[in-house]
Write a structure and sequence with these properties.
Largest sheet: none
Number of domains: 1
CATH architecture: Orthogonal Bundle
Helix content: 55-70%
Structural class: mainly alpha
Shape: elongated
Number of helices: 3
CATH topology: Helix Hairpins
Strand content: under 5%
Order of helices and strands: HHH
CATH class: Mainly Alpha
Radius of gyration: 19 Å
Number of strands: 0
Amino acid sequence: MPRKKSTSPDFEQSLNELETLVEQMEQGDISLEQSLELFERGIKLTRNCQESLKKAEQRVQQLVEKNGDSELEDFADASEDSNAEPSE
């Protein structure tokens, strides 16, 4: 039996909605009350995104450990290595 989808929006939906909220707030043509409501919604979306990223990171860690390679490299370190000029 397929697993029931959670009622919370997925990462991409949350991120897209968050971007829309930011654009609305940056326009500055909404009331203070509306701004507060959008801000509150933005906080909830941000927490949802953070939780999704945390779960994804844990899943990657489990998969890496399952394959016997328990050392992960920081993304920043990996991108610095790829930006380095090749030695001649």
